[in-house]
Amino acid sequence: MPIEFIGMIGTRQISELDGSTVSIIGGSIDAAYVCKFAKAHEDGGFDQVLVGYGSTGPDGLTVASFAAAATERLKFLIAHRPCWYTGASSRVPYRLL
Q1: Residues 85, 89, 95, 97: is their CA dihedral positive or negative?
Q2: Is the dihedral of CA 10, 12, 15, 20 positive or negative?
Q3: To which H or E segment does residue 9 belong?
Q4: Contacts of 52 (CB under 8 A, 6+ apart)
């Protein structure tokens, strides 16, 4: 069985030095940063990245869309809270059936 390397992706540049209440998945999306972050994972040999979930964070499918546009082979694991996800994209899978 091959080994797969899974990373994570943030939506904006932030550091723990900025305080204990900051989050790399909360707030807005810095599209250029997301693309750069995803490309760094792909160039580093990662197979997949986790797009995290937070109630105050941007939609995971939107974040993955920005990242996918900047990469060629990277796969995405999109976290969400089952039965509580109310974004417009939560209806997308049903439209595809």
Answers
A1: negative
A2: negative
A3: strand 6-9
A4: 8, 9, 10, 24, 25, 60, 79
- Whether residue 26 contacts residue 56, with contact meaning beta carbons closer than 8 Å, is answered with yes
Region class of 10: left (phi > 0), else alpha (psi between -120 and 50), else beta: beta
pLDDT tens-place string over residues 78-93: 887 665 555 555 555 5
pLDDT in tens, 52-76: 877 777 888 888 999 999 999 999 9
- DSSP H/E element including 70: helix 60-70
Kind plus residue range of the DSSP H or E element containing 8: strand 6-9
